[in-house]
Design a protein that fits this description.
This protein is an alpha/beta fold. It has 12 helices and 9 strands. A 7-stranded mixed β-sheet has the order 4-3-2-5-6-9-7, with helices on both faces. Helix 2 packs parallel to helix 3, helix 6 runs parallel beside helix 8 and helix 8 packs antiparallel against helix 9. The radius of gyration is 21 Å and the shape is elongated. The relative contact order is 0.11. The mean pLDDT is 95. Bound molecules: S-adenosylmethionine (SAM).
């Protein structure tokens, strides 16, 4: 049965109407489902953590390939469906909770498998906090393969310092090597979202690209710089009252041979790191 038919059948059987507030757009394109699972390159040595399994479309394929699949789903209605569909798999586990509240380190420790991979068609309303959690908690994971809104993907896979970036671009490039792996039209879902999507894969780095003296200080600086993205970096930092007067910040930039009129998105990760050391 095609994924589209199966999805319609399950939605009918359980009287499911997608909950927009939970970002529910169910994937119904067989090629994209296989595309995601193939690019995640899953083996029996892997624990896969799936965030937001929904009706279980990706889960079904993941269970066939992985050593263990731990699903984290907030919607209670989905829990019943997933249990009915997959309780015969001994490698299936489901947690009914908000992924932002779950202790992922514990899940990883308990599974005790050589590799850990995250796979998800993420709920778009909390893409950034989920990705930040996965990166900042320094989890012992190999890859994160996720479907996100195309516009967000564009920002995430951009090289820092080259254009339309956000604070998250720097975090992504600090902790991982990002790449875009699939483009997905909005017609691949029911209900159809207004936007197109992309699948990106983050390969987690064992050693970060830049050696920050103090990670917390570095990312605080980046977040403050991007809070007022349209301003120059000097003005954004001076307005925060955290880094001294405008003149002091200008002096710090001049010392690093950076144009004092620069905008935050033009700074490289290395330059932010140097700046955070001297401010
Ligand atoms: N994986 C399914 C698919 O591809 O068809 C569903 C993807 S849908 C875009 C996002 C899923 O994330 C929904 O099932 C939704 O209920 C779930 N979700 C939303 N917020 C969540 C949260 N805070 N924690 C865990 N799951 C969440």
């Amino acid at each position: 049965m095609s994924v589209l038919k199966e999805t319609k059948f399950i939605m009918n059987k359980y009287h499911i109407i997608a909950n927009k507030n939970l970002g529910q757009n169910f994937l119904v394109d067989d090629e994209i489902v296989l595309g995601i699972v193939n690019v995640a390159n899953i083996t029996k040595n892997d624990l896969v953590i799936e965030i937001g399994p929904g009706l279980g479309t990706l889960t079904k394929e993941l269970l066939e390939r992985a050593g263990k699949v731990t699903c984290i789903e907030l919607d209670k209605r989905m829990i019943q469906i997933l249990q009915d569909r997959f309780s015969m798999y001994s490698n299936f586990e489901i947690i009914n909770n908000d992924v932002l509240k779950v202790n992922l380190k514990e899940i990883i420790k308990k599974a005790n498998l050589p590799n850990v991979k995250i796979v998800a068609n993420l709920p778009y309303y909390i893409t950034t906090p989920i990705i930040m959690k996965l990166l900042e908690e320094r989890l012992d994971i190999q890859t994160i393969t996720v479907m996100i809104q195309k516009e967000v993907a564009d920002r995430l896979v951009t090289e820092p310092g080259t254009g339309d970036t956000g604070a998250i671009t720097y975090a992504i490039n600090y902790y991982s090597e990002p790449k875009r792996v699939l483009e997905v039209p909005n017609t691949a879902f029911i209900p159809e979202p207004k936007v197109n999507s992309s699948v990106i894969q983050l390969k987690i780095l064992k050693e970060t690209k830049v050696k920050a003296e103090d990670e917390e200080k570095l990312f605080e600086l980046i977040k403050i710089a991007f809070m007022q993205k349209r301003k120059t970096l000097v003005n954004a930092l001076a307005n925060s009252n955290r880094y001294g007067a405008k003149e002091q910040i200008e002096q710090a930039l001049t010392k690093l041979k950076i144009d004092p009129k620069i905008r935050p998105e033009k700074l490289t990760l290395e330059q932010f790191s140097e700046l955070s050391k001297i401010l």
